[in-house]
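Please fill in the sequence for the structure shown.

STRUCTURE ENCODING:
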């Protein structure tokens, strides 16, 4: 039996919902295991980093992207291809006008908080989605780009938008190889 070419299978939605619910249970368990929000945030970042260093291979194999020549191209690729591919959303990109290496991803919709209305009581400094920062940082490091990735704003903390800041720390080197004669 074949399915119509324009219909997306329903199991993608089920898998995303399962992931979001499992992620919520993970964060809840970490909040029980660690007293300090900083420890939970660090653990989520470390987990995300591990995912990112493994996920980059899948991303490169499935996306067929070409080599990027600027931080702007890399950030657009993260927003328009990677987020769409793995989370089904496309964040908008803003650039810091005074710096060529600072960007922000604005998430109108964050699937990780789909079933979350507010942070747990007494956890005001918890960065619930810090896993995303680790994923981005880990993936970038695997392609030899060092970056600082942090949440700048979070709707769960009462901000108007969810914003992830990316600051590239290592200068993008454009090596020109000379052909030996």
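FILLED IN BY: designer on duty
SEQUENCE:
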């Amino acid at each position: 039996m074949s399915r119509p070419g324009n219909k997306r299978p329903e199991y993608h939605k089920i898998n995303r919902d399962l992931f979001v619910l499992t992620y919520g249970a993970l964060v809840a368990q970490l909040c029980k295991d660690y007293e300090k929000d900083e420890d939970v945030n660090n653990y989520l970042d470390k987990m995300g980093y591990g995912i990112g260093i493994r996920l980059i291979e899948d991303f490169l194999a499935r996306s067929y992207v070409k080599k990027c020549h600027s931080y702007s191209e890399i950030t657009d690729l993260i927003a328009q291809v990677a987020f769409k591919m793995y989370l089904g959303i496309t964040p908008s990109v803003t650039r810091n006008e005074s710096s060529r290496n600072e960007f922000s991803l604005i998430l109108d919709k964050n699937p990780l908080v789909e079933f979350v209305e507010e942070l747990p009581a007494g956890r005001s400094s918890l960065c619930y989605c810090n896993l995303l920062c680790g994923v981005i940082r880990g993936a970038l490091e695997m392609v030899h780009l060092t970056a600082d990735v942090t949440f700048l704003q979070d709707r769960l903390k009462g901000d108007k938008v969810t914003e992830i800041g990316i600051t590239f720390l290592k200068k993008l080197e454009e090596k020109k190889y000379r052909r030996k004669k």
